[in-house]
Amino acid sequence: MKKRIAILSIIAVSILLMASTIWGSNNQPGSAGDPVVTRSYVDNQINQLRELISGTNGGSLSSQARDEIVSEVLNQVAQLSGATYVPVQAFEGDVIVGLEGTEIILRSGSAVAVVPGGNGITNVTTGRELLNNAAVERDNLLIIPRHDGRGVRVTAEEAWFLIKGGYEVN
Question: Model-level pTM?
Answer without folding.
Answer: 0.57
